[in-house]
Amino acid sequence: MNMTTFKTSLVWLAGITLLIQVATAALPFNWFNDNEQMPTLAPMLDRSKPAVVNIATRSNVRIQDNPLLDDPFFRRFFNIPEQQPRHRTKQSLGSGVIFDAKQGLVLTNNHVIHRADEITVSLTDGRSFQAELIGSDPATDVALIKIPAEQLTALPLADSDKLRVGDFVVAIGNPFGLGQTVTSGIVSALGRSGLGIEGYENFIQTDASINPGNSGGALVNLRGELVGINTAIFSPGQRGGNIGIGFAIPSNMVKQIIDQLIEHGEVRRAHLGVQMQDITAELANAFDIKSGQGAVVTRVMQGSAADEAGLQVGDVITAIDGNKLRNADSLRNTIGLLLVGKTITLDILREGQAKTLEATVTETQKQVAQQGPVHPKLSGATFGDLEEASPYYGKLDGVVVYSVKRGSPAWTAGLRSNDIITSANRLPIKTLDDFKPLAHNGKQLLLNLTRNGRAMFLLLK
Length: 461
Prior knowledge:
alpha+beta; Pdz3 Domain; Thrombin, subunit H
């Protein structure tokens, strides 16, 4: 047999072998013995699913009428009778995770229960309870509620800092209101930020299907430990379908938030007292920096922790407590999640020279408007300057609506907490001092607001 014939025989033999493999693959084949158990996630899910709950909310929303109907002259001219404000009932569905079985504490997203007049929690055993809001943090989209229930199952918290890209994870929630559903996938990326979804972002990205209604549900590892709270998806379509890009808030970040919600009912954010900017390639050359990572200080507040530590405009902060910073957002995230009073080490570059500074972060000072006579439609609301913790800090001038008492004139007029008032009667508002003269009179107020990133007008009469 010559070499050519030998090679031809090998090709035929390989082809016949492939055909046999394809044919046998199509036949039923018992990969496991009848007595051998197949790999399954069922035992882990049997332990975990009772800790994931369904959340239904109900709220009364005022229907905004045509502003002309509020004009007495217009109503008299057209003989239109005085009308009572109209309302409609709004309902929504989401998910939650039992965090403390003894206390009945349930974790969920802030946007699931935001502005809800009634929160109903349904367990997997069929029981339902009315929940009490303990506290929420819109900046991280975390909320904590409490139900008067016994014999609950809670999920243990995992150390989300130990997650690696490629780890298997399982999402448990209530997508589209279908009832409890389980999907699986892997960790696609870690430390996702700069997405504009929340004020503070450090997301776990996963390809486990997360759909509307999954918000507030659990992302667990294969041991059934909570590694994150499902909160958002990326979808190019208007209907918000899943395309394999979902985001969850890491459990370590959640733990920092709920510790403060339990103790204070709110998050008391640390304050360094700087405005920052990302390091671009051009700035890296200007500051003689080899790496483009870090954040450059553009302003230092007088008397702040940064000022006392000796930070200067032009300093480049590269790390906090040895943890390297990617950009200005990562610096703001790190500071905003610190406990008030903590002393931190700042690694900086000043004129190309490496230095180390220490700063003791303080609590963000809220400058709330003083009590006293205000416009009738502002009664029940409190106002203050933009905080360093706000994602709009340094990017937008205005006054923040810190709180609005439900049912108050301000609430009925349409004001909501976290609204940012950028102008009043077409006059720009930069600080609380600009707003006070207009707020403390009974004249008509035309407010220009920014709400959830969108601008709108609100007329108060």
